[in-house]
Amino acid sequence: MKNKIIDLIAGQVTDITPEEIAALIEIPPKPELGDFAFPCFRLAKTMHKAPQAIAAEIKDGIGRVDFLDEIKCEGAYLNFFVNKEQFIASQVQSMLKDNYGSSAEGEGKTICIDYSSPNVAKNFHVGHLRTTIIGNALYKIYSKLGYHVERINHIGDWGTQFGKLIVAYKAWGSEEAVKKDGVAELMRLYVKFHEEAEKDENLINEGRAWFAKMEQGDPEALSIWQWFKDISLAEFMKTYKLLGIEFDHITGESFYRNMTDDVIARIEKAGLLTESDGAKIVNLDEYDMAPCLIVKNDGSSIYATRDLAAVFYRKENYNFTKCLYVTGQEQKLHFAQVFKVVELLGNDWAKDGLVHIPYGLVSLSGEKLSTRSGNIIYAEDILLEAISKIKEIIEEKNPGLPDKDEVARKVGVGAVLFNDLYNQRIKDVSFKWDKLLNFNGETGPYVQYTYARCASILRGLEGFTPSADIDYSVLTDDASVDLVKELSRFGKVVQDAAERYEPFMVARFAVAVAQVFNKFYDANRINVEDEKVKTARATLVYIVKTVIKDAMSLLGIECPEQM
RNA sequence: GCACCAGUAGCUCAGUGGAUAGAGCAAUGGCCUCCGGAGCCAUGUGCGGAGGUUCGAUUCCUCUCUGGUGCACCA
């Protein structure tokens, strides 16, 4: 269609009927919102008919959209105007009927999402928060589109770092200290190890040796490892509970440890495995990539091996159409390598079935987060701080509010989640307390406040029930029209967000709805004498309330009825 | 050195070929005896730079500058 329009503009089409022009323009039966003034195409100077004449012909040729009122030629553009009342009616009716952007496009399809994946023996910090929140939002979004989703928490519970930790524990730790301080003590040991390793290179080799023992099933090594893992998981669960996030599978890397031999055999059988410096690799020169390391020179596995095992396990057990990996952008090369190896093993589905969903780096006061230097903020602290700040505000503004603690949790957590989901994933984030704790403007609490306001309005209307059978002629003012236009974008927004793996699109939509509603609220009194006006406006309020709740839930955020 | 990602208003960011590039924050000034003021309204010298493709480029291509990240025995 686009090319035909270009031909038309370029004057290369000389005989065309109004019907054909109308067909070219393809006014959708339910136009995208924003079509009141519809920028259709530019009429170039080279066009051999006057724009006005063409506008007139198109107008005569279009009869398909019942609420199309008028076409005007403005400058070099054609603008389409619709009958507002009919337009509003069609949109409101379809919103009340179609369950607000739900869809069945994913019916019968499974998506695996690999996200959160914190490392055992390390604290859950602000960086892990991003993958957790983004992954959870993608889960909600895909579910809304009818997909079956497997939520997989690929815990970092296997690898050389545990060998190092065992060395550190044996050298400088004690059972009492670990029991007393938990993850904090494990962290201390880990940091200590790296400090000492700078002086004594042999420590690294000892760590590797202990990991090799783990892979060989050494009981002592495994029992220490299991103990550390249990301590860490208990700690992670506290944060997940606060966030209200759950998983279908908490299957860490260790889950796949017995499947790596099979992976290595498959690669070898395919003739892809080559030896290099004592290690075994898949050469990827042909694809302009560094080689993918499969087996280390001491015979133990590496994360790529385990990721490969995980891919095959998931394909066989969940038969996914897509498997998404929500991890930092710094792992881009790693996933490109792993996906390429899967493909080279004769799996065409790897090409668009395996998707890395990268996100930008979180930094703190301009510097990279680092456990070792103490430049770090823990997820739990952020959430608790936000909740306590919200609590203060509630005490100040609404001290009589019931369930204050629960409301403060929803709003505080919502503020943190929303803040993290408001921009494109790829943007680096510089963590700042004052930005996070500002709850005005484009924030979660602003949207939640708008929701509570809707709830409050509806509570004040006795005997109101939403209905499509209302007088639409009272909703033709600018504020109402703008509101309806915004609301009916919902379905498209959810689809776009899924297609681009970008929850921020939903977050921005929620803010846009809240903004346009607050303007509507400012311009129109809802609880008025005239029943027709009251019912019509209240119906819009009802739709706004439903849409906001729905959109926020796609981000993993709850909306309290009062705040 | 090579590769990938980012660069839009003082700050944080939307804008995946179309009209006069939009929000929020911060700042200043306003908001009716009325449904929640965490709200609404008003104030803006901005697309890093240079070429190219196009009727039309913030958007696509090339080069360049700046920042970030990655480049096998960590994950």
Fourth-level CATH superfamily of the largest domain: HUPs
For the sheet with most strands, the description reads: 4 strands, parallel
Q: Report the β-strand fraction as a percent range.
A: 5-15%
Count of separate DSSP helical elements = 22
Shape: globular
Strand order of the largest sheet: 4-3-8-9
Mean pLDDT: 87
CATH architecture name of the largest domain? 3-Layer(aba) Sandwich
Q: Helical proportion?
A: 40-55%
Task: Considering the chains and any ligands shown, give keywords for the structure.
563 residues; alpha/beta; Rossmann fold; Isoleucyl-tRNA Synthetase, Domain 1; 3 domains; four-stranded parallel beta sheet; three-stranded antiparallel beta sheet; 12 strands; globular; RNA-binding
Structural write-up:
- It is a single chain.
- The protein is α/β, with parallel strands linked by helices and 563 residues long.
- The protein folds into three domains: 2-82, no CATH class; 110-368, Rossmann fold; 379-554, Isoleucyl-tRNA Synthetase, Domain 1.
- It is 54% helix and 10% strand.
- The protein has 22 helices and twelve strands.
- Strands 4-3-8-9 form a four-stranded parallel sheet, with helices on both faces. It has a three-stranded antiparallel sheet with strand order 5-6-7. The chain has a three-stranded mixed sheet with strand order 11-10-12.
- Helix 5 links the parallel strand 3 and strand 4.
- Helix 15 packs across helix 16.
- The protein starts with a helix and ends in a 9-residue tail after the last helix.
- The structure holds one RNA strand of 75 nucleotides.
